[in-house]
Specification:
Elements: E1 4-7, H1 11-22, E2 27-30, H2 34-44, E3 50-53, H3 56-61, E4 68-71, H4 77-86, E5 95-98, H5 104-116, E6 120-127, H6 129-135, E7 138-143, H7 145-158, E8 161-162, E9 165-166, H8 176-204, H9 210-220, H10 228-237, H11 261-272, H12 277-290, H13 292-299, H14 307-312, H15 324-357, H16 363-369, H17 380-391, H18 401-424, H19 429-441, H20 448-459
Parallel strand pairs: 1-2, 1-4, 2-3, 4-5, 5-6
Antiparallel strand pairs: 6-7, 8-9
Helix pairs in contact: 1-6, 8-11, 8-12, 8-15, 9-10, 11-12, 12-19, 15-18, 15-19, 16-17
The chain binds nicotinamide 8-bromo-adenine dinucleotide phosphate.
Residues 8-13, 31-33, 36, 72-75, 78, 81-82, 100-101, 126, 129-130 line the site of nicotinamide 8-bromo-adenine dinucleotide phosphate (NBP).
């Protein structure tokens, strides 16, 4: 009998099944289109103990009990379809594991629906793309902890390992696993946006070409910024296009695609009321990139900064002739500080969601399991892990001394970069909004008192005073009359 089954043998399911089988675990495999199962067996059947099933009935019959079934099909309706097909074939206590990129409210709904049939449902985030699935992903399992105990052995064995620890931990009940995977993907959006803003500045302010910028990223990959994304940025920027001999990035269309997890993250942050500028700006930037035709028209119509004024001013008012090395290092520091903010925001969002949903997320453990196997793997996550270990349930990572110092040290450079980019007309939504968030967050008294005054003026929404308890309303007209415009 097979210990575990995988249905859905596109790239992720196939590689996950191979990863499991390579560890000596017998795996049943199934796919809606049988030809794909045959193809899988032809290509990889010798890699392990596979049982190929032509139908869902055969698939279920091949599994030991309780049945453990990984569903790795396209997120959305296909997942519901597979669950509907499986449910009548399963027994109470069997476990369905949705390991695709499902939206967490769907996971919560499916868990409740499966529970009615006595089936245990887990929503499991799997990161690392096809290579991760095959060699060791970061795994974020959510759902019933008793059901998790039935699959923990397999999951921790196939996961990436860092410092002898698996990049897999039970995240929490219900949709917690898919929630954390969603925020992971959101942070991935922010990370990439910050990288491309640095690339844009190095191109259009420092005047460097792609291969040279690639070398700079190579250097950056040995410091605070060391990470998978910085490493592959160096490689991508130094790749030459065979057809033209030009840097390949220079012939790639400047429109970024997306599958929606960044948008989900931003929408959830708005619902929670958590300021999430880094990830949200990254989603908007992809939206702007998609407006290629409009941008083409606007490029010939909308004025940029006065060229002579922009050229004359280098970083922080220094001449544009100021050593380029200073500018490059300023950009590195701005990238690092903005990245700290983006992660601080993402972790603050997970903290807020944990409170709202009662998930009791261990945020330090999330940093730990993202250190390997996934796209945002980075040295930096060790610092976050240590921050939670030392400071417990801190509201915001910016308040942890390591990050407080890191951002304080980088802030002069960060401000110079934002000023320069603004003067020269280079869009840096994530750099600039991260700095604004930082400046807003560190203000004991912000300007929202005026918003309250305005709201009370036009809608009698009342306000609180700094010197007295309670709610207050003022007749704002000079003659003391009531002013209301929303009635
Ligand atoms: P896809 O997302 O491309 O889905 C293809 C699979 O879904 C095939 O096995 C297909 O069967 C099956 N499927 C579809 Br489409 N509709 C179905 C239905 N109504 N009933 C049953 N099966 C159906 O595959 P993927 O790229 O391997 O990704 C799988 C999951 O993992 C997704 O949720 C994805 O977001 C997530 N993920 C992907 C990556 C990545 O790097 N690709 C990374 C992390 C997570 P067929 O062969 O019969 O058409």
């Amino acid at each position: 009998m097979a210990h575990i089954g995988v249905t859905g043998l596109a790239v992720m399911g196939a590689n996950l099944a191979r990863n499991i089988a390579r560890r000596g675990v017998p795996v049943a495999v199934h796919n809606r289109t049988v030809a794909r199962t045959k193809e899988f067996m032809g290509a990889y059947g010798e890699e392990g103990d596979f049982t190929a099933a032509g139908s869902m009935e055969e698939f279920v019959a091949a599994l030991e009990r309780p049945r453990r079934i990984i569903v790795m099909v396209k997120a959305g309706a296909p997942v519901d379809g597979v669950i509907a097909e499986l449910t009548p074939l399963l027994d109470r206590g069997d476990i369905i594991i949705d390991a695709g990129n499902s939206h967490f409210p769907d996971t919560e709904r499916r868990a409740a629906e499966c529970a009615e049939a006595g089936i245990r449902f887990m929503g499991v985030g799997v990161s690392g793309g096809e290579e991760g699935a095959l060699y060791g992903p970061s795994i974020m399992p959510g759902g019933d902890p008793v059901a998790y105990a039935e699959v923990e052995g397999v999951f921790t064995t196939i996961a990436a390992q860092v410092d002898g620890s698996p990049c897999c931990v039970h995240v929490g009940p219900g949709g917690a696993g898919h929630y954390v995977k969603m925020v992971h993907n959101g942070i991935e959006y922010a990370d990439m946006q910050l990288i491309v803003e640095a690339y844009d500045l190095l191109t259009h302010v420092a005047g460097l070409d792609a291969p040279d910028i690639g070398k700079i990223f190579e250097e950056w990959n040995s410091g605070d910024l060391e990470s998978f994304l910085i490493e592959i940025t160096a490689i991508v920027l130094q790749k030459t296009d065979d057809a033209t001999g030009r840097p390949l990035v220079d012939v790639i269309v400047d429109q970024a695609g997306q599958k929606g997890t960044g948008t989900w993250t931003a929408i959830d942050a708005l619902n929670l009321g958590v300021p999430l500028t880094g990830i949200t700006e990254a989603v908007f930037a992809r939206g702007l990139s998609a407006l290629r035709d409009e941008r083409r028209m606007a490029a010939g119509t909308l004025a940029g900064p006065n060229p002579s004024a922009a050229q004359d001013r280098g970083v922080d008012g220094r001449s544009a002739e100021a050593p380029r090395a200073d500018l490059v290092d300023d950009i590195r520091q701005a990238l690092y500080a903005s990245k700290v903010v983006a992660y601080a925001q993402g972790f603050a969002q997970m903290r807020a969601a944990s409170q709202v949903h009662g998930w009791d997320l261990d945020l330090g453990a999330m940093a730990r399991i993202w250190r390997g196997g996934c796209i945002i793997r980075a040295q930096f996550l060790n610092r976050i892990m240590e921050a939670y270990a030392e400071h417990g349930d801190v509201e915001n990572l910016l308040m942890v001394p390591y990050f407080t110092r890191a951002v304080a040290d980088a802030q002069d450079a960060w401000r110079r970069v934002v000023v320069t980019a603004t003067q020269q007309g280079v869009a840096i939504p994530a750099f600039a909004s991260s700095l604004s968030y930082y400046d807003g967050y560190r203000r004991e008294r912000g300007p929202a008192n005026l918003i309250q005054g305005l709201r009370d003026y036009f809608g009698a929404h009342t306000y609180r005073r700094i010197d007295a308890e309670g709610s207050f309303h003022t007749r704002w007209a000079q003659d003391g009359r009531e002013v209301r415009t929303d009635v």
